[in-house]
Specification:
The complex is a heterodimer. Chain A is built from 12 helices and no strands. Chain A is mainly α. Chain A has 2 domains: about 50 residues; about 240 residues, MetI-like fold, CATH 1.10.3720. Chain A is globular. By secondary structure, chain B is mainly alpha-helical. The longest helix of chain B has about 40 residues. Classes of the chains: A mainly alpha, B mainly alpha. Chains A and B meet through helix 2, helix 4, helix 5, helix 6 and helix 7 of A and helix 1, helix 2, helix 4, helix 5 and helix 6 of B.
C-alpha cells in the first residue's frame, strides 16, 4: 500500500500488491467488529420498543373496558371502577383549543418567514422558533401559571394556552419547510396572470403546500396530547367531568396517568395502564395520519 | 381547494378573473394588510418568548433577591424553614442527562450509521419506523412503564450489580436503588435515542457518495470509509444532534419525576436517589404555596437558562452544517 507501481515491476509483484490491498487480518476484523456493533445498537434499541408496546398493550387491554372509556375517575385510588372519561374530554377540549389558536398563527408566521420576511427580523424569528421547540414544556407551564393562572385561576383555557405555545414553533417550522417546496413556477404563473401576492399565497401556495402543513399540524397535535408537565401547572386536574373553559380545574389523560403511576394502589395503577393505552392509541393515530398524508403528498408532487 | 393547484391551467382559471378586478385599490390594500398580519404573527414567537422570561423571572424575583447567589450554590432545600438552595436539583439534572447521553450517543450513532451505510435496503424502513415510534410515546407513558416494568426488570438488578462489583468507586456506592439518577438516566436515554439517531441519520445522508467511492477506491473497508469519509464530514451535525438530545434530556419532566427517587440532596453515587430541576417542579407544585411556589418558578428560570444556552449552541451548529 502507498507504493506507486513503477513500470519496471514484474507482473508477479503487481498481483501481490492487489492481494495486500484486500482488507486482511486486523483491518478485516475491525470492520467486522464495527458492523456487529452497529447491528448491536439497532437490536439494543429494539428491546425498549418491543417492551413498551407489548406491556402497554397487554396491561392496558387487561384493564380496558367500556366502563373505563365512558365513566369519570372515582374519588379513591383504591376503588376498582370508573375510568378516564373526564381526562379524555379535558384533553379533547384543551388540545382542540390549542390547535385553533396555534395553527392559524403558526401558518401566518411561516408565510411571513417564507414570503415576506427578509433580513435580521426573519432570521431572528426563525432562529428563536427553533430554540423555542427546545424550551422545556414544564417551563411553558410555569410561564402560563405566573402570567394567567395567578390572576384568573386554573382552567381549560390556561392548559390550552400552554399547549398552544408548545405547538406554535412546531407548526411554524414544518409549515415553512413545506412552503419552501412549492415550485416557484406556480407563483410566477399566478403573478403573470395579474394576481396579487395575497391572492397567490391564498389560492396557489397554500393549497399546494396543504398536505405537508397538515402533516406538521397532526404531529404537533400528537405532541400536545401527550404533554403532562405543563398541564399540572395550568389545568391542575379534576376527578369530575367539566366542560367549563375558565375558572375551574380540568383533567387530561396524561394527568390521570401520572396520578395513577404515583399512587400505591393497584386499582389506580390499572386505570393508569388503560389510560396509557388510550393515550398512546390517540397519539399513534395522529402520527399515523400524519405519515399517510405525508406519503400522499409525495405521490402527487 | 387542492384541485385548484393541480396544474398551471387550473390555477389560471381560478385566479385570473379575480386578479384583473383587484389589480388596483382593494387588492393592494389586502396585500399590505395581509403582509402586516403575517408580520405580527411571526413576531409573536419573539414576543411570547420575551414575555415568558419576564413573567417568570418577575414572579421568582423575591426569592432570587432574598436567597442571592446561594439559590444556585446551596443544596439546602427546605421549604418549611424557608431555605431554597437548588444546587442538588441542578446536579441531578446534569447527572441524569450525562448518563442518558453516555448510553444514547453510541446507540444512536450505531443506528444511524447502520441504517445509512450498512443495512440491506429492505430493513431500513422498518428500523427507522420502529425508532421513530419511540419518539411518539408520551413521557408520562415512559414514566409509567419505567416504574412498573423497567424498574423491577432491569433498573433494580442493574443498580445492584453496579454497586456490588463497582461499589468501591464512590460513583457506584450502595445501598443501590433502581429509583435513582441511574434509573432516570436510562429512561432518558431511551427517550433521546430517537432524537439523536434521526437527526444524525439526516446529517450522515448529506455526505456525498463521491466521498464514499473515493474511500472505497483507495481500498478502505466499510468501517475505514465511515471513519475517514463519513464521520469527518458529518461531525458538526452529529454534535448538534447530540446537543438537541441533551436539551430534551435536561428539560424532561414526568419520566424523571417518577424515576429519580425524589431525594432533595446531592448523592455522589448514581445508584442512589436524587432529584432534578424539572422533576421537583412537577412533584412539589401541587402541595406548594407562597414562597415555595416562587422558588419552584425560580428553579424553572434556571432550567430555562441552561436549556436555552444548550439549544442555541446546538441550533447554531446544525445551521452552520446545513449552510455548508
Amino acid at each position: 500500500m502507498g507504493r506507486s507501481p513503477s513500470p519496471g515491476e514484474s507482473a508477479g509483484a503487481k498481483v501481490s500488491d492487489i492481494n495486500s490491498a484486500r482488507p486482511a487480518g486486523r483491518r478485516l476484523w475491525t470492520n467486522r467488529l464495527a458492523s456487529a456493533a452497529m447491528l448491536g445498537a439497532v437490536l439494543l434499541a429494539m428491546i425498549p420498543v418491543g417492551l413498551i408496546l407489548s406491556y402497554i398493550f397487554a396491561k392496558g387491554m387487561a384493564a380496558m373496558s367500556w366502563e373505563f372509556l365512558s365513566e369519570p375517575t372515582p374519588f379513591s385510588f383504591r376503588r376498582a371502577e370508573g375510568g378516564f372519561l373526564n381526562g379524555l374530554i379535558g384533553t379533547g377540549i384543551m388540545v382542540g383549543l390549542a390547535t385553533l389558536v396555534s395553527v392559524p398563527l403558526g401558518i401566518l408566521a411561516a408565510i411571513y418567514l417564507q414570503e415576506y420576511g427578509r433580513g435580521l427580523l426573519a432570521n431572528l424569528i426563525r432562529f428563536f422558533s427553533d430554540v423555542m421547540t427546545g424550551v422545556p414544556s414544564v417551563f411553558v407551564g410555569l410561564f402560563v401559571y405566573t402570567a394567567f393562572v395567578l390572576p384568573f385561576g386554573f382552567g381549560a383555557v390556561m392548559g390550552a394556552a400552554a399547549l398552544a405555545i408548545i405547538m406554535l414553533p412546531i407548526v411554524v417550522r414544518t409549515t415553512e419547510e413545506m412552503l419552501k417546496l412549492v415550485p416557484l413556477e406556480l407563483q410566477h404563473g399566478s403573478f403573470a396572470l395579474g394576481a396579487s401576492k395575497f391572492q397567490t399565497i391564498i389560492r396557489v401556495v397554500l393549497p399546494s403546500a396543504l398536505p405537508g402543513i397538515t402533516t406538521g399540524v397532526l404531529l404537533a397535535v400528537a405532541r400536545a396530547a401527550g404533554e403532562t408537565a405543563p398541564l399540572i401547572l395550568t389545568a391542575l386536574g379534576s376527578l369530575t367531568i367539566t366542560t367549563k373553559l375558565i375558572g375551574e380545574p380540568i383533567s387530561a389523560l396524561p394527568l390521570l396517568i401520572f396520578d395513577g403511576a404515583r399512587n400505591p394502589f393497584a386499582a389506580g395503577q390499572e386505570r393508569a395502564w388503560a389510560g396509557a393505552l388510550e393515550l398512546l392509541a390517540l397519539v399513534l393515530i395522529f402520527t399515523l395520519l400524519a405519515r399517510i398524508v405525508a406519503s400522499r403528498s409525495k405521490i402527487s408532487s | 381547494m387542492q384541485s385548484e393547484a393541480r396544474t398551471l391551467g387550473d390555477v389560471a382559471a381560478g385566479v385570473a378573473p379575480a386578479a384583473i378586478e383587484n389589480r388596483t385599490g382593494i387588492g393592494r390594500r389586502a396585500d399590505s394588510l395581509f403582509g402586516l398580519l403575517t408580520l405580527v404573527s411571526g413576531s409573536l414567537v419573539l414576543i411570547v418568548l420575551g414575555f415568558m422570561v419576564v413573567s417568570t423571572t418577575n414572579t421568582a424575583l423575591p426569592i432570587f433577591s432574598s436567597e442571592g447567589l446561594s439559590f444556585v450554590t446551596s443544596s439546602n432545600w427546605n421549604p418549611a424553614d424557608g431555605n431554597y438552595g437548588i444546587l442538588a436539583f441542578i446536579y441531578g439534572t446534569l447527572v441524569t442527562s450525562i448518563i442518558a447521553l453516555v448510553i444514547a450517543i453510541p446507540v444512536s450513532l450505531g443506528i444511524a450509521l447502520y441504517v445509512v451505510e450498512a443495512a440491506p435496503r429492505w430493513v431500513r424502513g422498518p428500523i427507522t419506523y420502529a425508532v421513530d415510534l419511540l419518539a411518539a410515546v408520551p413521557s408520562v407513558v415512559y414514566g409509567l412503564w419505567g416504574v412498573f416494568v423497567l424498574l423491577p426488570l432491569f433498573l433494580q438488578p442493574a443498580a445492584a450489580l453496579l454497586s456490588e462489583y463497582l461499589g468501591f468507586i464512590p460513583l457506584f456506592a450502595g445501598p443501590p436503588s433502581g429509583l435513582s439518577y441511574f434509573g432516570a438516566g436510562v429512561v432518558l436515554a431511551i427517550m433521546v435515542i430517537p432524537i439523536i439517531s434521526s437527526l444524525s441519520r439526516e446529517v450522515i445522508r448529506t455526505v456525498p457518495d463521491a466521498d464514499r467511492y473515493a474511500a472505497y477506491a483507495l481500498g478502505a473497508t466499510r468501517w475505514e470509509m465511515i471513519r475517514g469519509a463519513v464521520i469527518p464530514r458529518s461531525r458538526a451535525g452529529i454534535v448538534g444532534a447530540v446537543m438537541l438530545g441533551l436539551g430534551r434530556a435536561l428539560g424532561e419532566t414526568i419520566a424523571v419525576a417518577l424515576l429519580v427517587g425524589s431525594a432533595t440532596r446531592i448523592d455522589p453515587s448514581v445508584v442512589r436517589p436524587g432529584y432534578s430541576m424539572a422533576a421537583v417542579i412537577a412533584n412539589q407544585f401541587q402541595e406548594a404555596s407562597g414562597d415555595h411556589i416562587r422558588a419552584l418558578v425560580g428553579v424553572g428560570v434556571v432550567l430555562f437558562a441552561i436549556t436555552i444556552l444548550v439549544n442555541m449552541a446546538a441550533r447554531l451548529m446544525v445551521w452552520r452544517m446545513v449552510e455548508r
